[in-house]
Amino acid sequence: MSPRQLAHFVTDEPFDTAQIEKMDAAQERYFLASQWQLMWWKLKRHKVAVISAAILLLFYGSTLLSEVLAPYNLHSRHTDYIYAPPQPLHLFHEGRFIGPFVYGWNYRLNMQNLKREYTPNRQDVQPLRFFCRGDRYTFWGLVESDLHVFCPAERGQVFLLGTDRLGRDMLSRIIYGARISLTIGLLGLTISFALGLVIGGIAGYYGGLTDIVIQRIIEMFRSFPELPLWMALSAILPVNWSPILVFFGITMILALLDWTSLARAVRSKLLSLREEDYCIAAELMGARPRRVIARHLLPGFMSHMIASATLSIPAMVLGETALSFLGLGLRPPVTSWGVLLNEAQNINVVALYPWLMLPVLPVIILILAFNFFGDGLRDAADPYK
């Protein structure tokens, strides 16, 4: 056999028909899958996006059970533990397993610098209680209860993230604040998403003078510096408004300033799709423009719009946090992450009590999770990847 000739082997073993049928079924399932199924299969392969989605589910799931998850009521004050530092969580005491517990604090006031000093009392072991009775609260403003996932020991205290200037537990306030900060992002997205689809759809479908006018309006909105414009509009809100009205006012401000990018994306897509054969066929059959846009054009790139929308939620959360931090957004008694950070503006307070800056951590985690999830969703919606 010459060097260029290759050996040829013939086997008399029967074909594995089960394996062939399995491969054929998988191919058929792939070719018959809908757009949303293909997106889901591609998204599952994006591990970072899946982990980010799980983190977002935990965040938003916690908003449904804030009262139960928080160890204390939102307004509970502990005057004996003002500016108490975080208590480390332990499992073993003197080599013996006890379970999750904290050591009690010994408190003294340093008369030379008037600083509150807390030292752990190694003899005061305070085991945590789980699914226990604690501070009373009104669940979602409807049902009175006192059930908590975990509570301090009897006649003890647990401040895993420390306390503020009024002796309020920081962990409980961060859990309660998540409900407001995360809800603003969803409500603002709903309003801006609707505005972007409607206005961008009109501009992209009709074109001509309508498109020119809408584009000039969008350019006018985008020409203003974002943060000063937020501050100016927030300052217009009457000071005598109730916290609920201020909440909806801030949501409307964030939504009315965030629809422009989405409207431009919708407009560019419609300009390219309105000349397709199926769109022209629908028009020739007598379909009205509203039906053509809603039933034929928008579904064609809705997946891309959803991916873009997930990336706009962090901007709204950051907007609310920035406005509340500057004192122009939500105000007490409403509790949000921005309101909590507003109390840490004094650099001297932060230098002495750095745990007051802890509300910035969930903001960072939320923004990163949304960005990673949005990137994964955008890749899954891209038919060329």
The domain count comes to 2
Discrete helix count = 15
CATH architectural grouping of the largest domain: Orthogonal Bundle
How is the CATH topology of the largest domain named? MetI-like fold
At the fourth CATH level, what is the homologous superfamily of the largest domain? MetI-like
The percent of residues in helical segments reads 55-70%
Class from secondary-structure proportions: alpha+beta
Mean pLDDT: 84
Our estimate of the beta-strand percent is 5-15%
Largest sheet: 3 strands, antiparallel
Give the N-to-C terminal Cα separation.
46 Å
Q: Which residue ranges are poorly predicted, with pLDDT under 50 across at least 5 consecutive positions?
A: none
From the spread of the alpha carbons, the general shape counts as flat
Rg result: 29 Å
**Order of strands in the sheet with the most strands?**
1-2-3
